[in-house]
Design goal:
The protein contains eight helices and four strands; from the N terminus they run αβαβββαααααα. With about 230 residues, the chain is mainly alpha-helical.
């Protein structure tokens, strides 16, 4: 049993780091958010709920200027104030915001936050083991290669999550009668909305898939769902 103690301590450390990070996020969201109650969005959120045999989907406003949506580990959905301000300015439609909510619901439905918790703990263990084994033989290149490999693995898992959430959102938007067009139109304008910033990292190291790949996947999913 004692020989497994270092490994068990590493696993416990990974979970402790994730729980602390989740706790800090929850505190920040509690302090900087308010319930979303918008006359243009409420009927659309009603339709999302009805499509799932639920009451109106509840969302919250995260009071930060960034343009984003997120699903908290506790299952709450947040849309940033920056996103809603773009809707106020006419740059984003209520249907497009609803598509973001549907996407975040996809993350909740697939349990991505819990899955990432397990992945995060596993990555810490794997990194430590590889650094002790490979890193000792390749003192300079080894740690760099290990971190690169793990970053690519994390990016692959994250991109898979995004495709799953998009697929869920497309099905929900089609079933609700809103349709998948708002998902596609938002992605086509997203780069402009965020200031045209492009990541310098290779595509296989990015947390989100390229926009053209996401649009193509949504179009394919829309064809699959439109006759159901």
């Amino acid at each position: 049993m004692l020989k497994f103690l270092p490994l068990l301590l590493l696993i416990a450390y990974g979970f402790a780091i994730w729980f602390f990070s989740a706790w800090r996020m929850k505190q920040d969201l509690n302090e900087r958010s308010t319930p979303l109650d918008d006359a243009r969005l409420n009927p659309l959120l009603d339709r999302l709920g009805a499509a799932m045999d639920l009451p109106r989907i509840r969302a919250h406003i995260y009071e930060i200027p960034a343009i984003n949506g997120l699903a908290a580990p506790d299952g709450r959905i947040f849309i940033t104030r920056g996103f809603l301000e773009r809707m106020e300015n006419g740059e984003v439609t209520p249907e497009e915001i609803t598509g973001v909510v549907a996407h975040e619901l996809g993350h909740v439905a697939h349990g991505h936050s819990k899955r990432r918790m397990i992945d995060f703990a596993g990555q810490n263990v794997l990194r430590s083991v590889l650094l002790v084994t490979i890193g000792r033989f390749l003192p300079f290149v080894g740690p760099w290669l290990i971190n690169l490999m793990l970053a690519a693995m994390v990016a692959r898992l994250s991109q898979k999550d995004e495709f799953e959430a998009d697929r869920f959102a497309t099905a929900l938007m089609v079933k609700s009668g809103i349709g998948a067009a708002p998902q596609i139109s938002l992605f086509r304008k997203l780069e402009k909305l965020t200031g045209g910033r492009r990541a310098n990292a290779p595509a296989w190291l990015l947390s989100h898939p390229a926009l053209d790949r996401r649009i193509a996947a949504i179009e394919a999913n829309r064809e699959r769902w439109k006759d159901r």
